Amino acid sequence: MRLTALRIQAVLAALIALLVVLQVYLIASYFFGAQDALDVHETNGFAVIHPLEALVFLVGLAAWWRRWGMVGVSFLLPLIGTIQIGLTEGSDWVGGLDGLLALVVGGLGGHIAAKALLEARRETRRRDGVGVGSAS
């Protein structure tokens, strides 16, 4: 079960990182005159990315049980996402933190994906007995 959870978390976290890149493209398109891009940006953030952030945390509980540091890192995604949603209604300067935190979310998604893939590889090697009790 842990191996499956690690793989699922890696895919979901990587998807979040890619979707953040899409978000940057959409908001830049809006600034350059594509009026519909703002609606797509808002829908993508609220209806797609934020639920995925929650899923990364929930799957992370199974993937990293008793490894509380990584459970905490997994929790940061929905926490920061919730803060971002709150900042979108702020003033010009406060609202700008939404974009800054988007970079944090993208980086964090990439970090979680990489850690989960590495741990899944280690778990697979342990399960298959590769490198256990040998010099390889």
Proportion of β residues?
A: under 5%
Let me know the number of strands: 0
> Which regions contain 5 or more consecutive residues with pLDDT less than 50?
none
Report Rg: 18 Å
Number of helical segments with 4 or more residues: 5
State the distance separating the first and last CA atoms: 26 Å
Listing every helix as H and every strand as E from the N terminus to the C terminus, the arrangement reads HHHHH
Task: Give helix % range.
Answer: over 70%
Can you tell me the number of structural domains? 1
What is the arithmetic mean of pLDDT? 92
Structural class comes to mainly alpha
Q: Can you summarize the main beta sheet?
A: none
Query: So what's the overall shape?
Result: elongated
Question: How is this structure best described in words?
Answer:
The protein is mainly alpha-helical. It has one domain (2-126). It is built from 5 helices and no strands. Helix 1 runs antiparallel to helix 2. The two termini are 26 Å apart. The model has no long low-confidence stretch (mean pLDDT 92).
